[in-house]
Amino acid sequence: MSSGVVVIGGGIAAQSLCEEIRERDPAVPLTMICGEPCLPYDRVRLSELLVSDEAPASLALRPREWYEDREVKTLLGRRVAFLDPGLRRLTLEDQEEIPYDQLVLATGSEPLLPPLPGLDLPGVLPFRGPEHCEEIRAAACGGAARVAVIGGGLLGLEAAYGVAAQGCAVTVVHLMDRLMERQLDPPAAALLQPAMEELGVDVLLERQTEAILGSDRVEGLRLAGGEEIECDLVVISIGIRPQASLAAAAGIEVGRGVLVDDEMRTSAPSVWAVGECAEHRGTVYGLVAPIHEQAAVAAASLLGDCEQPYEGSLQWAKLKVMGVDLVSIGFPEGSQEAVAADAGGPAYRKLVLAEGRAAGAILLGDTRGSEDLLNAIAAGEEVTDPLARLAASAEATAADLPPEAQICNCNGVCKGEIVAAVTEGGCATPREVMALTRAGTGCGSCKEAVVELVAVETGGAVDEPAYLCPCRQQTREQLAAVIRERGLEAVSEVAETCGTGRECGQCKPALAYLVSEVNANRHREERAARFINDRVHANIQNDGTFSVVPRMYGGVTTPDELRRIADAAERYDVRMVKVTGGQRIDLLGVRKEDLPDIWRDIGMPSGHAYAKAVRTVKTCVGESFCRFGLGDSIDLGIALEREWEGLHTPAKVKAGVSGCPRNCAEATVKDIGVVAVEGGWQIRVGGAAGANVREADILETVETPAEVIRTATVVLQYYRENADYKERLYDFVPRVGLEEIRAVVRDPERSAELLERFRIAKAAVSDPWLERDEPYHPRQFSELDPVGPPVEAEL
Amino acid sequence: MSVATAHAVCRAADVPLGEGRAVTVAGRRIAVFNAPTGWFALDAVCPHQGGPLADGIVADNCVACPLHDRRFDLRTGECLGDGEGVTAHRVEVRDGTVEVTLA
């Protein structure tokens, strides 16, 4: 039997190779030996782990099923001890022997560590794998207020930004005379430095670290010349060292990395090498796009049909630091250059030519046209007027690119493939195109181009991003990410950071919700950002007066409550007392200044009838009274309403619980509806009976009221976290799909996480009507009275 | 030379930053705004359907009526779009007292 192909490694290179092989040959036996205990994950998005709480699993390149479905055997947490190219055999550390027909080394690299005294002290961490992210994050949150990052290259700056975003004071210590010297020329680096400093990252250039100081753990750095920096955490990111020891021990030729030819073959027969462990024509590539190119060539070569040899890759990098837009392509400097820069301004755009052809570019602060320039440089386009070419690139859109232009450089997807996914693959949305082609699923920087291309191909009408702020063109997701990463706690901070909420003001209430949701209701409240209803916790009416709706859990009240309501209605001269559709009582025509007093007299909590929040849970009398009743709908309705009371939501949420399928509580047209059926409860979501009528979809049928509360709460929290502002659940459900919501509630892990976040948010909720005694502002409910006599003034 | 009357309407601390409050000045309902860009005063009633402008959201030197979102320039009272505008009045803060001079 054939031993097939064995891949050593579990990173992007190994994964890419397996994908390339399976695309060409679904049958050849294929084994991946992965030293890490997890399936391949995306290192490119590593720095995201520093700024978010995402679990490493979220960076997995493919789910477990992918390997099972394609018969890729994975050996996880197993290391290769010895390689015998002569016998075509590997020996694992646990002594198991594995024969191969073809072997691919994709062993990657290690962080390069400087030989410094104190390198072993606790608090000194390399920045390389998810394990480091977690350590760095834990150390940073654990009070390490001062962080030193050794290395001012791409990864070092991303690491520095990651810890700065957590509120740490960060100093980058860099050996060279400018940041990212391999990708940037001096003027661009000089602009980058203040941009980083604005984000809280101090930069020390031309400083050599001599020693890491500290007795029990790190206390500081000593630099050449004697200068010392105090710090509690040192992150080292000075580069990579190819892992070539296995090859070297097997007698394979090694330079900096494993030496390979233009088919990615090593000096040993039937052994290839790809990725960061390989050295091709003197270059070790540490970026993703070249790795994919190498993997494609290696896969073709080992399957015996390599038509296009590998001739090296164009180096290309994008700095993933929020608020700093920087793309560097190819050579940063050359004999002929054209620069477009605002005098003293933040934008810098440069095109480098070599022998009249595009050879490199730097785009800082204004990265428009980066795909266009990348393609021009990759193709070695002839350029006569570089300044005009640079200007043209700024106007270029994805639609102007040729079909072979690469859009997603992480996954090597060209424009033609994206267009074909729409025209031939039947994809209608960017999401579907990304799933099919994998474009936009790497670092994500090309997502906008993908959205644009899909829009052009589909006629432009489909899947326009729902901007939270139309004037700033920022989506809910983008803003939520900024709020999370920067730890923003108030609308004004978001306005300062993103400009959102400053110009039109229309998005302020949406931002207020987003800030409260992301901060689990521990935000800093700014009432000026709220609609009047949420400033005074009552619903403004057409005459400027307000309505007051106290909470009646499940629509159940008592004679005592009714008496207090009746008394208050008379005392404050309310214009009308009305029973609402949600089974409670509305007092209409209350003056703003009377609100605190009427709430006090009624003595019931707010019904949130004025807010985008959980409104009411309507119930029928169920088995408590009804002769047809199958379940205790009143009890369950009250329990649900208590569970959800006070939580704000993207749009109002109305619920209902019916005690039998006759459905007197109209649960089938509620945002969340529950119907007692024989043997349990049917949970429905996404119903509507307003301007549109929509029957709620049946989500699950469960046995106990406790399961109803759990499942429905998972849905509610998922909606709170993912819906656009003002998007009702009945729009959200069809948009994300019932299947997706079902997958969430059936996934124990995701459900548990959602419930935990729900619990945290709920714990910070209190009855807003208590502001009657502790107002947000002394004049929260009152207009102004003139103070003192008029003053005469001359004009 | 004309003599205008500046009416003291409140202390500066009486209007939260970014909000407005209504007051009667010489029998006229006026909305006074403590905007991030300064103090402003407009007629308090939206000419569209009588909405209380003092309860509107303030942004970019404008206030949006809470009833139907008509927007008025706080500096001039002009309606953004086609609608009828409102009168803008002069506001000054002296020694922490907010004074309105009717236009």
Looking at how many chains there are and whether they match, the oligomeric state comes to: heterodimer
Based on CA atoms alone, the radius of gyration of chain A comes out at 31 Å
Q: Uncertain regions of chain A: pLDDT < 50 for 5+ in a row?
A: none
For the record, what CATH class of the domain at 5-109 and 242-302 in chain A applies? Answer: Alpha Beta
Task: Tell me the β content of chain B.
Answer: over 45%
CATH topology term of chain B: Rieske Iron-sulfur Protein
* Strand proportion of chain A: 15-25%
For the largest beta sheet of chain B, what order do the strands appear in spatially?
A: 1-9-8-4-3-2
Task: Summarize the main sheet of chain B.
Answer: 6 strands, antiparallel
How would you state the average pLDDT of chain B, rounded?
92
Tell me the CATH topology of the domain at 5-109 and 242-302 in chain A: FAD/NAD(P)-binding domain
Topology, please?
The complex is a heterodimer of chains A (795) and B (103).
Chain A: E1 5-8, H1 12-24, E2 30-34, H2 48-51, H3 64-69, E3 72-76, E4 80-84, E5 89-92, E6 97-99, E7 102-105, E8 109-111, E9 124-126, H4 130-141, E10 146-150, H5 154-164, E11 169-173, H6 186-198, E12 201-204, E13 209-213, E14 220-223, E15 228-230, E16 233-236, E17 240-242, H7 245-249, E18 258-260, E19 271-273, E20 278-280, H8 288-302, E21 316-318, E22 326-330, E23 336-341, E24 348-354, E25 357-364, H9 370-378, H10 386-395, E26 406-408, E27 413-414, H11 415-423, H12 430-437, H13 447-457, E28 467-469, E29 474-475, H14 476-486, H15 491-498, H16 508-518, H17 532-536, E30 539-540, E31 546-548, H18 559-571, E32 576-579, E33 585-590, H19 595-602, E34 614-619, H20 622-625, H21 633-644, E35 653-658, E36 672-677, E37 680-685, E38 688-689, E39 693-694, E40 697-702, H22 705-722, H23 729-736, H24 738-746, H25 748-763, E41 791-794
Parallel strand pairs in A: 1-2, 1-7, 2-3, 7-19, 9-16, 10-11, 10-16, 11-12, 18-20, 34-35, 35-36
Antiparallel strand pairs in A: 4-5, 5-6, 8-17, 13-14, 14-15, 21-22, 22-25, 23-24, 24-25, 26-27, 28-29, 30-31, 31-33, 32-33, 36-37, 37-40, 38-39
Helix pairs in contact in A: 1-8, 11-12, 11-13, 22-25
Chain B: E1 3-11, E2 20-25, E3 28-35, E4 38-43, E5 57-59, E6 62-64, E7 71-73, E8 88-94, E9 97-101
Antiparallel strand pairs in B: 1-9, 2-3, 3-4, 4-8, 5-6, 6-7, 8-9
